[in-house]
Amino acid sequence: MMSDIRNFIEQEMENKHSHCGMHLPTPETGITFAENDTYEALAGTFENGCAKDFTLADGVLTYTGSITKTFHFTGTAGGKVSKQCDMTFGLFVNDVIVAGCETPVYFTAQDRSKAFTCAQNFILEPDDVITVKAKISDKTATFDLHNFSITLWGC
Predict the structure, then answer these.
(1) Which of 25, 90, 91, 137 gives a 20 to 30 Å CA spacing to 60?
(2) Average pLDDT over every residue of 123-146
(3) Mean pLDDT of all residues in 119-145
């Protein structure tokens, strides 16, 4: 009887949780931006790991779960620029910035490497689309993305 209860609880936990991880397996160098101070999709070839209720295509995550859930997002990245400039990274759901998920990064010199993080809770509905975008203050600068990883955990 105890094993039946344990199996039931484990199955319920599995059914209620959705999660995914997206990362950049190799650095992406020479990223350019078309405009100053305009969010653009972050360039790179990303991989999806440990996903349940998510798909990844062309750097875009889609929540494929069947119910609305609250998710916790954690993102980390690191990179450098070719010249002094400011960058801001943002998490978007259906092309709308998630409140509290904008991370400004101030590069004070050429080839200055920086790491940055963001964490936030938000709600996802079935078929919501999640993207990470960035904007730069000087479009003549290039950006080298050394590492990138995000995780989403929802219940």
Answers:
(1) 137
(2) 95
(3) 95
* β-strand pairing of 54-57 with 60-63: antiparallel
- Stretch 93-110: mean pLDDT, rounded? 92
Residues 98-131, buried b or exposed e (16+ Cβ, 10 A)? beebbbebebeeeeeeeeeebeeebebeeebebb
Q: What CATH number is given for 19-154 in this structure?
A: 2.60.120.40
Q: Give the model confidence (pLDDT) of 26-74 as tens digits.
A: 999 999 999 999 999 988 888 887 789 999 998 899 999 999 999 999 9
Of 4-8, 82-86, 89-93, 115-119, which gets the smallest average pLDDT? 4-8
Would you kindly state where each structural domain of the chain is located, as residue ranges? 19-154
pLDDT at site 128: 97
Q: Which two tokens stand for residue 60?
A: 């875009």
Cα gap 39→36, rounded to integer Å:
9
Report whether 14 contacts 128 (CB < 8 A). no
Strands 40-41 and 60-63, bridge-based pairing: unpaired
